[in-house]
Amino acid sequence: MGTCVYTCAAGWGDCTAAPGCETDLGTTKAHCGACGNTCAAFCKVGSCNDPVSVVGGYYHHCAVLKEGEVYCWGRNEKGEVGSDAPILTKTPVKVSLPSPGTATQVDGGGNSGGTYNARSCAILTGGSVACWGDGNGVPVKVSSLTNIKQISVGNSHTCAVDTGGKLYCWGGNSDGQVGAGDTGYKSLPVQISTNVAYVNAGGSHTCAIKNGGTLQCWGDNARGQLGINSTVDQSVPTAVSNIVSVGQVQCGQDHTCARDASDVYCWGANAFGSLGINSFEQKLSPQLVDLAGVQTIALGFGNTGTLVASSVWMWGNNSAGKLGNGNQTSQPKPVQIGLSGVTALTLASASSCALLTDGSIRCWGDNTYGQLGNGTTVSSFTPTAVVWP
After folding, report:
1. Phi-psi region of 146 (alpha: psi -120 to 50; beta: other; left: phi over 0)
2. How far apart are CA 283 and CA 274, in angstroms?
3. Nearest to 251 by CA among 223, 280, 231, 271
4. How far apart are CA 209 and CA 247, in angstroms?
5. What is the C-alpha to C-alpha distance for residues 195 and 88, in angstroms, rounded to an integer?
6. Which H, E and C letters describe 200-232, residue by residue?
7. Backbone angles phi, psi at 210, to 5 degrees
């Protein structure tokens, strides 16, 4: 006699040793679309809907998924995680974005100088911008912005670049970080420059890469973080003259790093070794970091991270273990932390997160507010996996 065989109905699979088509391939994270195809976050209609980016805020982090949904976690005292999230959000929570409800990029920032404030902003699909936090957890569109391609959120100010290269900034401006030529608060976006390829907002300073690779910085310069060989604040974009062909720039709390085709340079505050030059001396102009093959850079509050061959190297302030190398000793030069297969790296005030090639996110450092996203408030000196709902 012949052997009985069966064929599973569309969308179902036989993924266990037991007979029968027991696995829903459309929703099961361990078998999404096919037996053994594992998702990091969600299985949606038989396809993994995993993170494609991750960013650091202040005491919070956010991520954009493949389908455009935004999820955030961590401290939510000011609504920076979203209106439906608890004050301590220990695992990712979906943000209810305005129409069309999906995003291409998200960023976050904040500060606790006197009064704690934190916010997040996202570029919605189609190029509009929505922001939330600073006391309002409901995302609200920034009505005057359209066709935005990139956004960056600092301590108290935000900047965005549109598809035509126009740069807009708004918010806190006590040190001229908005770049409008004065120090008055800007409640609405102000056009600052044109021909801009990329912008990054730091503590109270800002840097932008012009098309062609020239670098300009402005705002607070008390620690030399503008890289212009002085400590005088600048309220308008000012050229950083001794670095060219810049491909990426990142602003930390009070230090800055930039990458050209082959090298990384850092400048500004260096009390914790955040410049990576094996000293603790403040520098007013770009200093070469002895680390080759850097793919990307990320800055936080006194610490710096890079990817080299998809592995994480970090240096600087190591409070709460935010360098991820298993201790709390600050490092004045790059150290490899043992995390590989990384596609993106981001640093917040006291925590760090990395996106891996399999779509998972690992975070480390301070977890007082659940900002590691692992379901606890226990800090970790080494990378720990974000737990998705």
Report:
1. beta
2. 11
3. 223
4. 8
5. 41
6. EECCCEEEEEECCCCEEEEECCCCCCCCCCCCC
7. -85, 155
Is 17 exposed, middle or buried (CB count within 10 Å of its CB: 0-12, 13-18, 19+)? exposed
Per-residue burial over 312-323, b if 16 or more Cβ lie within 10 Å, else e, is bbbbbbbbbbbb
- Give every CB contact of residue 38 below 8 A, 6+ residues apart in sequence: 29, 30, 31, 32, 358
Distances in Å between the Cα of 94 and the Cα atoms of 91, 171, 217 are 10, 26, 34
Token pair for residue 349? Answer: 């005030």
Q: Are strands 215-219 and 234-239 parallel, antiparallel or unpaired?
A: antiparallel
Q: How far apart are CA 306 and CA 315, in angstroms?
A: 9
Residue 4's pLDDT is 59
- Cα separation, 240 vs 221, whole angstroms: 13
Cβ-based burial of 372 (10 A; exposed 0-12, middle 13-18, buried ≥19)? buried
Average of per-residue pLDDT values in the chain: 96
The whole-angstrom separation of Cα 294 and Cα 258 is: 11
Q: Are 232 and 220 in contact (CB under 8 A)?
A: no
What are 120-146's pLDDT values in tens digits?
999 999 999 999 999 999 999 999 999
Q: Is the pLDDT of residue 17 over 90?
A: no
CA 341 remoteness from chain centre: 18
Q: Which two tokens stand for residue 43?
A: 């299985």
Which residues lie below 8 Å from residue 287, measured CB to CB, with a gap of 6+?
A: 265, 266, 267, 275, 277
Q: Determine the distance from the C-alpha atom of residue 86 to the mean position of all C-alpha atoms in its chain, rounded to a whole number.
A: 21
pLDDT digit string, tens, across residues 61-91: 999 999 999 999 999 999 999 998 999 999 9
Q: Where are the alpha helices (DSSP H) in 240-321?
A: none
The two tokens of residue 70 are 């935004």
Buried b (16+ CB within 10 A) or exposed e, 191-207: ebbeebbbbbbbbbbbb
Instruction: Kindly state the tokens that stand for 14.
Output: 């036989």
